[in-house]
Amino acid sequence: MNRSCIRSRFLCGAALVALAASANAQVSGNAQANGYVQANGNARKGEDVFTTNCGECHSAREGRDKRGPSLYGMVGATAGQKAGFKYSDDLAASGIVWDAENLSRYLANPRALVPGSKMKFDGLANAQERADVIAYIATLGAH
User: Fold this and answer.
1) What superfamily in CATH does domain 3-138 come from?
2) pTM more than 0.85
């Protein structure tokens, strides 16, 4: 392999690394701008966790409710207060603000935090998966 080919492959590889870093910084920047950075969460992995565990009942798109409410803009919002969606009385009266700590507690075991929750989800036991999905949700917009 000649020097020109080696240099070309090196530059291409460096460009891909820079592109990946830039994309990751954009995700991190969005989460930071929303004020809810989950220090050890990976938003890209969190999108996969969301799709697998949450996507059947929740949407990441603004204004698109499913069986559960859209999670767009829910970070920083008070639980159970989104207009147009019928929450359980317990969640609506909870006064919980969806920050990283409360989201992690709720995702670990929804009915432990809100006993009368209507959400049919037993919880996400893996702390890293919770951190990842919270990092992803934080990129969707904040209240």
Assistant:
1) Cytochrome c-like domain (1.10.760.10)
2) no
